[in-house]
Amino acid sequence: MPNAGGPSRGCLPCRQKHVKHKPLLIIQQCDLTRPQCRRCLRKKVPCQGYRDEWDMRFRVETVSTYETAIGRDRRKRPSSLVPQYHFLPLGHDLSNLHADHFVSLVLHHFSIASADVDLESPVKILPHLIPAAEEGSPLHNVSKTLGCSYLPSTIRSHHSTTLARAYGNSLVAINRALRDPTERTSDSTLLSVWLLRVYELTWCLNNGVDTAIASARSDLHMSGMAELLRLRGREQFLSQGGREIFCMVFCTLLNRAVITGGDCPPESLNWLREFIQHSGPSTMGAAHAAVFCYICYRICSDIRRLIDLADSEILLSRSQSLLQQVDEIESITYRVIGHVQSSLGPYQIANGNFGDRMVRSDFKLRLLSNALELLLHTSHMPGCTLQQRNEFSERQDHFTNEFQNFAEKVLLAIATVHNTQSLIVSDDLKGDIGSDAVIRWSHVLRVTQPLRMIGQSPFSLVWQRRAANNILKFMYTQVGAI
After folding, report:
1. Residue 143 banded pLDDT, cuts 50, 70, 90
2. Contact 345, 351 (CB under 8 A)
């Protein structure tokens, strides 16, 4: 607050001796000579310098120090004109009040307007579970960790210590819940492990942690989430919240398996059957997305194993059937689902829930990318004939065009929903970014994977890679930590 008094501008020894700058009393004055005043030199006293000008203009005041400052104020004022205030002691330390808002911050970023059905998030169950989480529970502690990583500027010098403490409390709470037979099968425990993985991946990326270490940490969480799905059994499909959490975690496991070439849990088909059997109209879109992602994973895994086998005869004989499966991925999905209503129609990005569409889009882009990689390997095999090379070249052009057209639809859908058309630099896609665009963590989580796929794929067009990276950069700037 402004310092309205007249603080002494003299050097430290003169202020300690209460020597003021008085021009008429030359012997006693502090002449303000810099770097040492002449009075100190004459007295042979070490002159320790002057205060900063800003310290004399302003002083930092808190509730506790303000009352003390009033008591020490020697300036005369009429007592009848100055009201007397009595300050009550605070119930909380002001420096720790930010911690009380971490959970609310996470809840805000994972909340979606109820009226905006199309913008529902794959983490839409979070706004229902976070408010019900008890203090000290795994979900409560992980939410505090996410909030703490998002508000480093409010914590200042205590940021690292506070964040480390919050992260440690999260690990302790999760391990305690995993040892409890009831808590380890709850929705909040599984969701806490999923959120902790999101935090650790973000922290590793932001702090330049080695990729191998980050990958090992991610694999540890993946194995833990797969084991939790096994322990939860059929009961997890009986409630809508349990089905939503299963779909989110299951698609995360499949995404990791497609990226790393690993295996998904062997119980996946049984889980999908239970999921479809218990799904109603509200979760049928999520069931469709889960089945579609699983079939994409199976085809990508077969392609990877075929490429790694490096047998030209087997590669040439089996490549046609795999490429046919890539072309028929939508019809295969509906055959697996079986009793899905015909009103859903063929798979298109323009239909269904936006969050589910983005999950399917990521897997379809990865499927097309694996098909193109298979064509590149097959066409260079020694036993490949000229006719086969021509056929593979036509297939390659077909899948390349399909990849680029699909990437354009994904970019347009994301830019339209989040009002970021100006970040897409194409003659066909132009617009102005809206001033009312609000980006939350849930928005970033559902579009990060397809945007990264488009931004890093060699099969994308130049403007598509630039647009995807621009949107990602804009969103990361808006949301901070995540």
Report:
1. confident
2. yes
Structure tokens at 148: 């703490």
- State how far the Cα of 399 lies from the Cα of 186, in Å rounded to an integer: 43
> In this structure, what token pair is assigned to residue 381?
């095999």
- Which of 391, 403, 479, 401 is closest to 441 using CA atoms? 479
pLDDT at 150 over 90: no
- Other residues' Cβ atoms within 10 Å of the Cβ of residue 56: 15
What SS3 class is residue 19? Answer: coil
Q: And the tokens for 115?
A: 């009226």
Read off φ and ψ for residue 2, nearest 5 degrees: -65, 140
Per this entry, what is the length of the chain? 482
C-alpha distances (whole Å) from 275 to each of 175, 248, 285, 348 are 28, 12, 11, 22
Could you tell me which of 306, 309, 268, 310 has the C-alpha nearest to residue 290?
268
Contacts of 304 (CB under 8 A, 6+ apart): 261, 370
Torsion of CA 111, 117, 119, 123, to 10 degrees: 50
Quote the CA–CA distance of 295 and 306 in Å, as a whole number. Answer: 17
Joined together, the tokens standing for residue 166 give 């919050």
Q: How far apart are the first and last CA of the chain?
A: 36
**Distance (Å, whole) CA 326 – CA 329:** 5
- Show the DSSP H helices in 338-440 as ranges: 354-379, 386-418
| DSSP structure class, residue 414 | H
The Cα 411–Cα 405 span in angstroms is 10
Q: What is the pTM of this model?
A: 0.72
Decide if pLDDT at 369 tops 50.
Answer: yes
What is the rounded distance in angstroms from the CA atom of residue 382 to the CA atom of residue 378?
9
Domain segments of the chain as ranges = 1-91, 95-237, 295-482
Average pLDDT, the chain: 76
